[in-house]
Amino acid sequence: MNKMIGISDGSGDPGVSTVKSAVRVLDILEHLAHQGEPLALRDLVRNLKFPKSSTFALMRSLVSRGYVVRDRNDRYAIHPAFRDAFLRPSRFEDRLVAYAMPIMEVARDATGETVILAVQEATLDARLVAKCVSPQPLRWDSELGKMVPGYASVMGRVLLAHTDPARVDEYLARTPLHPFTPRTITDEGELRALLEDIRRRGYSIVEEEYALGGCGVAAPVFDADGTVVATVDIATIVQRFATAREAMIQAAVAAANEISARLGHRPGAGTEAGASEETH
């Protein structure tokens, strides 16, 4: 006879499923794998937003099984033998996409618009690494692997806004600000002010600056160290943007923050994207 053997969450509630407990165990192990130092139980509860009682029970089980070690100060760390398995099952980009895709699908379904994930290249331009395409007949789409300019695209600007200023100086010194459309910002001073604005409010908006007929809202994705490692873009056509603008802002910021959390970013650290729109 076959039976499932799992780690109990200690709640004693028959309505708590094995699947839910398994997901929490994976979340705990992945979160610990990304930390530079052990975490106290209160930190795990705050970061993961799990109930304290069930988190304690899960940690006790993980310690007894050897997946997690507890130090003399009652702080927890993943056992070194398992860190790489939960930190880098493959190269970072593969892990990023694996974490992001389910979240992007939710954002796509909620907005009805295309959702794109991009990373920054050494050139400081952005490269598309994942997408969930809108089901609507008229929609925005781009091919994976495409490079888009750091200064003119909504994704490129988010990444540029969070890049070391010295590297931004070098980028602007070597990059002609070529207009892709009549609306493209080509004045360096205006662009620098916009990058500061993006960094302050936590998202970027582009309306027909990179391509006529295309609009988008993008927000930054942070890793456990608070470094911006990617950006999420909700992309649409200009005909729908006016009425969808606020919903797209909220969706882009929410998706970016959720992916950041999956990468080990701690909410409330002061670096997550915001969603209050300001005029500029």
TrEMBL record:
One of its GO terms (biological process) is negative regulation of DNA-templated transcription. InterPro entries: GAF-like_dom_sf, HTH_MetabolicPath_Reg, Tscrpt_reg_IclR_C, Tscrpt_reg_IclR_N, WH-like_DNA-bd_sf, WH_DNA-bd_sf. PROSITE patterns: HTH_ICLR, ICLR_ED. Keywords: DNA-binding, Transcription, Transcription regulation. Residues 19-80 form the HTH iclR-type domain. SMART domains: HTH_ICLR (SM00346). Residues 84-265 form the IclR-ED domain. The keyword Ligase does not apply. This is IclR family transcriptional regulator. It comes from Acuticoccus sediminis.
